[in-house]
Amino acid sequence: MNNSHQPKIAIIDPNTLAAIGLRQILQNVMPIVKIDTYGSFAELEANNPDDYVHYFVSMHLVLENRNFFLNHRKKTIVLTTSMKEHTQLSDFHELRVNAPEEQLVKSLLVLQQHAHGHGKRLAITLPEQVNPLSDREKEVLSLIVQGYINKEIANILNIGITTVITHRKNIMEKLSMKSVSALTIYAVTHGFVDINRI
Q1: Does the predicted model carry a pTM greater than 0.85?
Q2: What is the structure's pLDDT at 58?
Q3: Which residues, 6+ apart, have CB-to-CB distance to 127 below 8 Å?
Q4: Do 2 and 32 meet the contact criterion of CB atoms below 8 Å apart?
Q5: How far apart are CA 144 and CA 153, in angstroms?
């Protein structure tokens, strides 16, 4: 790893727009990670590929450079647009990048929590932070990301619907977040809700 001990992830995809979008989502899910993007396998090779804890790689680049990625299969996550499993890629984790944002975020959070199916997390931990939310706001946040609407949250917590709306507004202001996807990332990475409950 590099001298700063900051975990590094590489995105290798010739589609610049897709790589930038994925980098932004990954940065939200794993804020302490350094993420580099490369448009080709040759660019990755020229930049110390062993320094990276994970590679997010377009499917065709994995197929074209199969030997390298097979040797690094525990680090490799194949970016695909297909719903079908590919037999030639059965050794790798796949991430469907054309999924709706909430589903893509959930898939990334599952990878972040469970990595390659052996109960190990991606080699990334979040720094300790002071949480700005009250206990009640944490409860409301947990229910929001589990998909409950304001009325249901009010019934579950036995509070008024206007109170739920106020809590929701305060949560978004305190966290400077504007979408349920961003709240989901925050809630899961801070342990307020289990990924299997969303």
Answers
A1: no
A2: 92
A3: 32
A4: no
A5: 8
